[in-house]
Amino acid sequence: MVSIEVPAVAAQKTPTRGKYLLRVVALGYLALLLLLPMALLCYRAFGHGLGALWSSFTTSEARSAVVVTLIVAGCAVALNTVFGVGAAILLVRRSFPGRRILDVLVDIPQAVSPIVVGLALILVYGKFGIVGGWLERHGIQLIFSLPGIVLATAFVSLPLVVRAVAPVLAELGDEQEQAARTLGASAWHTFRRVTLPSIRDALVYGVVLALARSLGEYGAVTVVSGRVVGKTLTMTLLIDDRLQNFDQQAAYSMAVLLALLAVGALLISRRLQSRARRLV
Amino acid sequence: MSISTRNVSKRFGAFTALDDVSIDIESGSLTALVGPSGSGKSTLLRVIAGLDVADAGTVRIDEHDATHLPPQRRGVGFVFQHYAPFKHLTVYENVAFGLRVRKTPRSDVRARVAELLDLVHLEKFASRYPSQLSGGQRQRMALARALAVRPRVLLLDEPFGALDAQVRHELRLWLRRLHDEMHVTTVIVTHDQEEAMEVADEIVVLRDGRVQQVGSPDDVYDCPANDWVMSFLGPVTEFDGQLVRPHELELTTVPDDDALAAWVVRVTRVGFETRVEVDVDGKPVYAQLARDAAHLLRLAPGARVYLRHASGRAARDTPKVR
Questions:
Q1: Which residue of chain A has the CA closest to B72?
Q2: Phi, psi at residue B90, to the nearest 5°?
C-alpha cells in the first residue's frame, strides 16, 4: 500500500504543467515535421481513388523507375555491406599505417554534399574523365547509365554500415575470435561462425540505414543519371520529373511508394533484430 | 608433448614483455608460469599458442618447429581468463565447435561432447547459453571446449583469476585430478604463487620478461635463486641481515647462545597462526608461530624473547643461495 501511495505523493509534488508542456512540444514538433506532411501526401496520393493510384504505378516509366531504384539500391547496399564489414574489421582489429586516414575518409561521404559527389564522379568516370575516357574506348559507359548511379549511391551511403558495425566489433573484443583460432578454425571460418553472428544486429541496422539512404538518394544521382526515361530514371528522379511536368498525382503516388519501401525495410529489420536478440 | 622455447623475445612498443626466454616443458607435466603482472607470463603462453608472434627466438612443440605456425595448426587448447565463450552458441555447440571445424561425423561429435560435459559436470546445461551460467560453470565449459579436440598441449591463462576464493580452490583441485587422469601437457599462467605451488609439478618464475628460476614447488620455495624469488613465493622477514621465512624463526623466553634478544612489539592472531612482531636491535622482524606455541610462551607486548633460525644453524651463518 505504501509503495502505491508514495509515487502518488511524489507525482503531486512535481509540477505537472512542465511535464505536459514537454509532451506537447515533442509531439507537436513531430506532427508538424513528419505526421502532417506524410498524412497530406497520402491523402493526395489516395485522393483520386485506388484506381488512379494503381494506374499511376503501372505506367512504363513508373515501373522502370521502381526497377531501376531497386537494382541500384540492391547493388549499392551489397557493395557497402562487403566494404563496410571489411573496413570495420580493418579499423577495429588491425593497426597499420594509414588507419587513421581511413577512419577519417570513411566519414567524408556523409559530410560532403551529394551534388559535389556527383560532380566529382563525372570528373573521373565521365566521358572526358581520366578513368571514364579509357573505359569509354573499351565500350564501357559508367556515367549516364546504371553503373554510374550505383557508384554515386554507394558513395553517399558508404559510412553507414561501417559506423554501425565498428563500435560493436570494438566492444566485442577479439577473445572469441582467438578462441576459435586455437580450436582449429581458419580465418574465414572464424569470421562466418563467430564474428558475423556476433555483429549481426548491428549489421542489419547498418544495412537498413544504407538501404533507406540508397532508395531515397537524389542529389548525387541527379548529376550522374542523365535522366534517360525508362533507363536511368530512379524513383526520386521520376518524382521530380513529374512535379516539373505538373503531374502531381503521379508524383504523390511515387512518393508514397518510396516512403512505404523505406518503412517496410525498417520494420523487417526490427523483426530480424528482435529474433536475433532472443538468441543471445 | 614437450614444449621448448629458445631465446624468445617480444616487445610491445617500448615495453619488453619477454627478454631472451628459454624454457623446457616436459611431456605430460603440469607447469605453472608465475610472476607479477607485467612479468611476461601471459605473453609467453600466447607465444606458445601462436596468438602472439615472438620478435626473436623459436618455439618447438613435440620436437617440431612451431615458431611460424598459425594457432589453428599448433594442436593447442587454450583457456582464456575471461573464458571467451561463444555467446551466440549453446554450451553443447560451444564444446562441439572445434569438432565441427574438423568435420567430425555428427554421431562422433555427439558422443565426444557428451563425454566432456560429463567430465566437467555440465551434462544438464547442454542447451543453455553462456550468459545463463555462473563464472565457474563458464570456466568449465571453456575447459571442455578446449579439451574436446584432444589438444597435444593445454594452455590456461589465469583460468581461475575471475572466480571467488571458494570456487577457485575447488576448480584448482579438480584441474589437478583431471591432469592426473589425462596426462596432457599443461601450462598454467597465474600471478598467485600459492595456486602455482598447489597445482603444478614444475614452476617457472618470471620477472620483467626474464626467467628467474625453474624448479619443482619445493625447489623454488626452499632454495630460491635470489631474494626477489624468495619474497615473491611467500612471506619473508629480514632477520640478522638475511631474508628468512617468518615461520622458520624460533622464539623462546630462555636466553640461548644462538639466539638474538628481542622485544615483543605486537601479537596478532590470524586463524590458526599467531604473528609476532618483535624488535631486534631497533629493527622490526616478525615471526609466525602456531597458536598453541604462542599461547604457551605467554607473549605480550613488551616481553623479552630470544629469536633464532629454526633450521638449527647459527643465526649468523651465510644463507644458502644458488
A1: A184
A2: -75, 170
A192 interfacial to chain B (CB closer than 8 Å): no
CB contact under 8 A, A175 and B97: no
pLDDT score for B322: 37
Q: State yes or no: pLDDT of B142 exceeds 90.
A: yes
Instruction: Measure the CA dihedral B224/B225/B231/B237, to 10°.
Output: 70
User: If you count them, how many residues does chain A have?
Assistant: 280
Residue A142 sits in the same domain as residue A32:
no
Contact B98 A184 (CB under 8 A): yes
Residue B200 in grid coordinates: 603444478
Give the model's pLDDT for residue A13.
Answer: 53
- Which tens digit of pLDDT belongs to each residue from B205-222? 999 999 999 999 999 998
Which of A31, A46, A61 is where one domain is finished? A46
Mean pLDDT of B26-43: 93
CA distance B210 to A36: 72
Residue A260 belongs to some domain of the structure: yes
Same domain, A34 and A129: no
A84 occurs within a structural domain? yes
> Across the interface, do A176 and B146 touch by the CB < 8 Å criterion?
no
| Same domain assignment for residues A26 and A95 | no
A226 and A190 fall within a common domain: yes
- When pLDDT is averaged across residues B43-59 and rounded to a whole number, the result is 94
The arithmetic mean of pLDDT across residues B260-288, rounded, is 87
pLDDT for the residue numbered A92: 93
The per-residue b/e assignment along A185-200, b for 16 or more CB within 10 angstroms, e otherwise, is beeebbbebbbebbbb
State whether A39 and A119 are in the same domain.
no
Chain B interface with A: residues with Cβ < 8 Å: 49-51, 70-74, 76-78, 80, 82, 84-88, 97-98, 101-102, 129, 131, 142, 145-146, 149
Regions of chain A where pLDDT drops below 50: 1-11, 279-280
> Could you tell me if residue A134 is inside a domain?
yes
Is residue A191 domain-resident?
A: yes
- Whole-prediction pTM: 0.79
CB pairs under 8 A between A and B: 65
Residue in the block written with cell 579499423: A91
Instruction: Please check whether residue B273 is in contact with residue B290, taking contact to mean a CB–CB distance below 8 angstroms.
Output: yes
In tens, the pLDDT along B57-85 reads: 999 998 889 999 999 889 899 999 899 99
CB A242 within 8 A of CB A250: yes
Band (pLDDT 50/70/90 cuts) for residue B8 is very high
Same domain, A79 and A120: yes
The alpha carbon of residue B136 is apart from the nearest alpha carbon of chain A, in Å, by 18
A167 and A41 together in one domain = no
- CATH number of the domain where residue A147 is located: 1.10.3720.10
Tell me which chain A residues have a C-beta less than 8 angstroms from the C-beta of B129.
280
Cα gap B191→B194, rounded to integer Å = 9
- Taking only the tens place, the pLDDT of each residue in A32-53 is 998 898 888 888 888 888 888 8
Q: How confident is the model at residue B186 (pLDDT cuts 50, 70, 90)?
A: very high
B72:A185 CB<8 A? yes
Give the helix/strand (H/E) hosting A112. none
Looking at the structure of chain A, the number of domains it has is 2
Of B51, B88, B101, nearest to A184 by CB-CB distance is B101
Residue span of the structural domain in which A269 resides:
49-279
Interface residue A180 vs chain B (CB under 8 A): yes
Do A153 and A195 share a domain, yes or no? yes
Q: Which of B155, B214, B162, B223 is nearest to B184 (CA)?
A: B155
State how far residue A103 is from chain B, nearest Cα, in angstroms: 22
> Least CB-CB distance to B149: which of A175, A181, A183?
A183
